[in-house]
Amino acid sequence: MTKMRSQTEKEEVECAVAPPSIEDG
């Protein structure tokens, strides 16, 4: 679960910097 938590934090930061549209594509 540690890995999942780390990914969630990174995703949150990325989302604030740029939308997850690029990652979704």
Features of this protein?
25 residues; single chain; mainly alpha
Commentary on this structure:
By secondary structure, the protein is an all-alpha fold. The protein has one domain. The chain is 80% helix and 0% strand. The protein is elongated.
Give a quick account of the main beta sheet: strands, pairing sense, barrel closure. Answer: none
- Rg over CA atoms, rounded to whole Å, is 9 Å
How far is the N terminus from the C terminus?
Answer: 26 Å
Strand residues, percent: under 5%
Q: Give the tally of β-strands.
A: 0
* General form: elongated
Number of helices: 2
Helix content: over 70%
Report the uncertain regions: none
Could you tell me the mean pLDDT? 63
Structural class: mainly alpha
User: How many structural domains?
Assistant: 1
How do the SSEs run, as a string of H and E? Answer: HH
Region (Disordered): 1-25
Biased composition (Basic and acidic residues): 1-10
Brief sketch in words of this structure:
The protein has 2 helices and no strands. The model has no long low-confidence stretch (mean pLDDT 63).
Strand and helix map with partners:
Blueprint (H helix, E strand, L loop, with lengths): L1 H16 L3 H4 L1
